[in-house]
């Protein structure tokens, strides 16, 4: 497969907030936690994690909304309320984008799945790695390396 070429363009549902990503993701994921299930009204949320330096808001002004805490800052379109991206302080320098918002949704296939202890019993994903919770911080460098080796399989 050929990777989508940056810049990758994304938008909320109404189009008021637009963004651009100038690099491919460093990893993709599905989160099965109850919080993500409730925020998406679905079985899980999808993520494509990019270097924050490659992420730019090109139109509009997203707002912090939803459940906030010391671990997560969720950003939404103020008009249509689309959940667009999350900043996770523990992942300094990275930004967690909802990949289905990209014009080319190629990066939606999850490489890893997290919080499978809360996964709905009927859900299956093609994820290569699976974690009952979140991966331990010390595992993250090897996960990034593994994704880089297999990136073409996940878009």
TrEMBL record:
Source taxon at top rank: Bacteria
SUPFAM superfamilies the record matches: Mss4-like (SSF51316)
Keyword Protein biosynthesis on entry: no
Keywords, comma-separated and alphabetical: Lyase, Metal-binding, Zinc
InterPro entries named in the record: CENP-V/GFA, Mss4-like_sf
GO MF, one example: carbon-sulfur lyase activity
Amino-acid biosynthesis keyword on record: no
Domain CENP-V/GFA residues, every copy: 8-108
Family recorded in the similarity comment: Belongs to the Gfa family.
Name of the protein in its database record: GFA family protein
């Amino acid at each position: 497969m050929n990777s989508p070429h940056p810049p990758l363009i994304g938008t909320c549902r109404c189009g008021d907030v637009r963004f651009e990503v100038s690099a491919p993701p460093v990893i993709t994921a599905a989160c099965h936690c109850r919080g993500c299930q409730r925020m998406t009204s679905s079985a899980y949320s999808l993520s494509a994690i990019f270097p924050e330096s490659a992420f730019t808001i090109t139109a509009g002004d997203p707002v912090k909304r939803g459940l906030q805490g010391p671990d997560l800052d969720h950003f939404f379109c103020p008009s249509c309320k689309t959940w667009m991206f999350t900043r996770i302080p523990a992942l300094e320098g990275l930004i967690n984008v909802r990949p289905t918002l990209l014009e080319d949704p190629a990066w939606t296939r999850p490489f890893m799945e997290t919080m499978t202890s809360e996964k709905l019993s009927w859900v299956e994903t093609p994820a290569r790695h699976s974690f009952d919770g979140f991966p331990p911080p010390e595992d993250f460098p090897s996960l990034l390396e593994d994704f880089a080796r297999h990136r073409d399989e996940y878009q």
